[in-house]
Specification:
single chain, about 300 residues, alpha+beta, Rossmann fold, 2 domains, six-stranded antiparallel beta sheet
């Protein structure tokens, strides 16, 4: 199997783990391709840009935190190349394999004993001055947000779902998230957890100033249109937290589900609520069963 390795070299020990992976994978007969910077540091494997790695590899190993998985998924999404995260960070909601379990990962790669988990992604476009958009240029795994810049006052945004007026957001902006993204920025904005298997999109006001506007879960096939009120203001379109485009007051942003999916690879059963409890709630263990109360698994 041809394995691509994308690594966040700012994380402690990432270079050493990458070198070990390349050595062990090649010893087991697998081919490895890594980014040019990493290839220069470890003096091993072939160095290519991330996009070319995703086009050539059958599996991408992402070394870093959840941000590294986001980068790998967005690079691989149009090709739907599977991505498996090795957690060199702290939270590890998406990067599930710790460095201590690399031996098991190598065995799983040898035997093909991993499952593929297909996740929805988003596409966004800017429609200038009421004209048709040039194309859906922006793809995201977690979310697309329309926000004020850091110096601006609150913004007013009209929200349409399938061309039906859904309400006006008054605040710092609005966030459109995939079910996977419901555990990211949307969660800190007061949005609900949405199981990643659901065919849905989540629309969440950012620091909303109007009590009546609440987070909404809408059908996954919905086209969401966001229209600024003020023709003289400029807003930012952010894609997975990174700058995508400037939106003037005469523009509209359109967000929809992408026609392609992210593909995550798992080497053990994916237990969503175990991850939520441990990574978000900080809880461990199973259901309570004290003095005859509670449920057993």
């Amino acid at each position: 199997m041809k394995i691509g390795i994308l690594a966040n070299l700012t994380k402690t020990n990432t270079q050493d783990v990458a070198l070990r992976l390349v050595h062990d994978l090649e010893a087991r007969g697998h081919g490895c391709i890594v980014e040019a910077e990493l290839a220069g540091r470890i003096d091993a494997a072939e160095g290519l840009p991330a996009a070319e790695i995703c086009a050539e590899a059958e599996l991408i190993l992402s070394l870093g935190g959840d941000g590294s998985v986001l980068r790998a998924v967005n690079a691989a999404a149009h090709l739907e190349t599977p991505v498996l995260g090795i957690n060199m960070g702290r939270v590890g909601f998406l990067s599930e394999v710790p460095p201590t379990e690399i031996a098991g990962l190598l065995d799983a790669i040898d035997s093909g004993a991993f499952t593929l988990d297909r996740r929805s992604m988003l596409q966004a476009a800017v429609q200038p001055g009421g004209k048709d958009p040039a194309g859906f240029r922006y793809a995201s795994f977690n979310d697309v947000s329309i926000t004020r810049d850091k110096y601006a006052c609150i913004v007013r945004l009209d929200l349409f779902v399938q061309d039906e007026f859904a309400g006006t957001v008054v605040g710092d902006g609005v966030l459109v998230s995939t079910p996977t993204g419901s555990t990211a920025y949307a969660l800190s904005c007061g949005g609900p957890l949405v199981h990643p298997s659901l065919d849905a999109l989540l629309v969440t006001p950012i620091s909303g100033h109007v009590a009546g506007m609440r987070p909404m879960v809408v059908p996954g096939g919905s086209v969401i249109r966001i229209c600024p009120h003020d023709a003289h203001r400029e807003l930012d379109l952010l894609v997975d937290g990174k700058f995508g485009a400037r939106i003037s007051g005469n523009d509209e942003a359109i967000v929809r589900r992408a026609p392609f999916q992210a593909v995550l690879a798992h080497i053990k059963p994916y237990r969503y609520f175990d991850i939520v409890r441990s990574k978000i709630y900080g809880e461990n263990g199973g259901p309570r069963d004290q003095k005859g109360t509670g449920c057993k698994e």
